[in-house]
TrEMBL record:
Protein name as catalogued: DNA-binding transcriptional MerR regulator
Gene3D superfamilies the UniProt entry points to: 1.10.1660.10
GO molecular function per UniProt: DNA binding; DNA-binding transcription factor activity
Signal peptide start-end: none
Listed InterPro entries: DNA-bd_dom_put_sf (IPR009061), MerR-type_HTH_dom (IPR000551), MerR_fam (IPR047057)
Record-linked Pfam families: MerR_1
Protein's UniProt keywords contain Transcription regulation: yes
Key word Coiled coil present: no
Lineage of origin: Bacteria, Bacillati, Bacillota, Bacilli, Bacillales
SUPFAM superfamilies: Putative DNA-binding domain
UniProt keyword terms in alphabetical order: DNA-binding, Repressor, Transcription, Transcription regulation
HTH merR-type domain segment(s): 24-90
Length: 111
């Protein structure tokens, strides 16, 4: 398996993606987005952390990390934060609908 196939395999490994939950510091290190900005985006409702208790470290799943990357990309392109959030939400809805249809198609073919 070449490197591109391995990378694609990781993107399609839904079990791995469901387990992928990282702390805010790790997200910041990986994405280059400052923790302060991540907290602000959460306050604005753009992303959601998975808090296990009061005072605990904010932790984010794969989809929220993806949203952060998309929001940052749009900010870099000149979008306002509110416009970026709306565009990312629309994109995520479109992707979710497409994957839902794909899953239904796959289920129908198995039957």
């Amino acid at each position: 398996m070449d490197e591109n196939q391995q990378n694609l395999h990781h993107l399609l490994d839904f079990e791995l993606l469901n387990k992928l939950i990282v702390g805010i510091g790790e997200v910041s290190d990986i994405t280059g987005i400052p923790t302060r900005k991540i907290r602000y985006w959460e306050e604005k409702g753009a992303i959601e952390s998975e808090k296990s208790g009061e005072g605990s470290t904010r932790r984010y799943n794969y989809l929220n990390v993806k949203k952060m990357l998309l929001i940052q990309e749009m900010l870099d392109e000149g979008f306002t934060l509110d416009a970026a959030i709306k565009k990312v939400e629309k994109r995520m809805e479109t992707l979710n609908e497409a994957f839902r249809k794909l899953a239904n198609t796959m289920t129908e073919h198995r039957e």
